[in-house]
Amino acid sequence: MIRVAFFDAKAYDKPSFEHFGKLHGISFRFLETKLNEDTVALAKDSDAVCVFVNDTVNATVITRLYEYGVKMIALRSAGYNNVDVKAAFGRIHVVHVPAYSPYAVAEHAMALLLTSVRRTHKAYNRTRDYNFSLSGLTGFDLHGKTAGIIGTGKIGRIFIDICRGFGMKVIAYDPYPAADSGIEYVALDDLFAQSDVISLHCPLNDGTFHIVNANAIARMKKGVTIVNTSRGALIDAQALLDGIKSREIGAACLDVYEEEADVFFEDRSGHIMNDDLLARLISMPNVIVTSHQAFLTEEALNNIAETTVNNILSYFNSDGICDNELCYRCGNVERCINERKERCF
Ligand code: NAI
Predict the structure, then answer these.
(1) Which domains are delineated in the chain?
(2) Strand pairing of 93-95 and 48-51?
(3) What is the structure's pLDDT at 329?
(4) pTM
(5) How far is CA 320 from the centre of its chain?
(6) Ligand 1 centre and the CA of 78: distance in Å?
(7) Is pLDDT above 80 for 298?
(8) Residue 261: its pLDDT value, please?
(9) Who's near 195: CB < 8 A, 6+ residues apart?
(10) Could you tell me if residue 340 is left (phi over 0), alpha (psi between -120 and 50 degrees) or otherwise beta?
(11) Is 260 labeled as catalytic in the residue annotation?
């Protein structure tokens, strides 16, 4: 039996992981706490740890895991900015789930955009109270508007297709343009200047941290709608709030938030909100916040569990390459997989 300490476990994780674990001889120990320097001791006696987006897997945590004999860090997410992949190299294999349902995330991005543009969240609350007034509910057509997409990977391209279905003009920025995709790529500054809607679909890394900051906002169209379903720190949240207060930004749809780790995924309705910036953003009539739920569909949960189990098996039950390994040595963390003929170390 392969023993896996499963950090930051939520009720919705358990059925799919228990199902695929039982099928393949993996025992998941579900822990509600997040993995960090204070909780890493809980991984003792485990062969692997399974972590999510708000677990902290820095060099210190990795050293402790290595000392405990943990062989694998299995991310049950696509993004891996919370794992020090460089510190893990040569000691612990890191795997992720590169795609579980890019549709889930792209569809949620459009759900947020439509909600914001057509004020359905306000209408829903009103009609439940038998308030049938239309005052303040005027939206705008997406048809004919320009969508600027930052990052044209799996999710970004599906979102582009959805936008085109709505009759939007699409422009995009990506340092690695998708060849033969028919996507009109422009410089980032031009995207900022021309877009009515800007949607972020790039990973968080040194090059994308605060890609939406005060400077960027100053170059955007007045009244722009910003959608972020990628990672919170792509946006400087204070600059976003300032842009909303100055009316430069027309609306913001946020499934992620820079400081979400201490807030999201839990019921905090009976508590005092300590994060003033988030509280202020939520108080704005033109800001919609969801709690990092873009991935949360049945299809995605099953794919995440199945792929994670296969990732774990590819190391423990075979001598072959680890599918979906994130390997620092190759420099281009995700892209070496096709060139690899054997394990990275
Ligand atoms: P992907 O790896 O298929 O695509 C990412 C794209 O971003 C690539 O085309 C890459 O070239 C591009 N990129 C890299 N650096 C860039 C830069 N500086 N500027 C613009 N583009 C850049 O990733 P995928 O699957 O499309 O996911 C995108 C992001 O969505 C993930 O990194 C993750 O942070 C986020 N995500 C959020 C979820 C949620 O529940 N809210 C769920 C899954 C992913």
Answers:
(1) 2-100+297-316 (3.40.50.720), 102-289 (3.40.50.720)
(2) unpaired
(3) 73
(4) 0.90
(5) 29
(6) 8
(7) yes
(8) 86
(9) 146, 147, 148, 171, 220, 221, 224
(10) beta
(11) yes
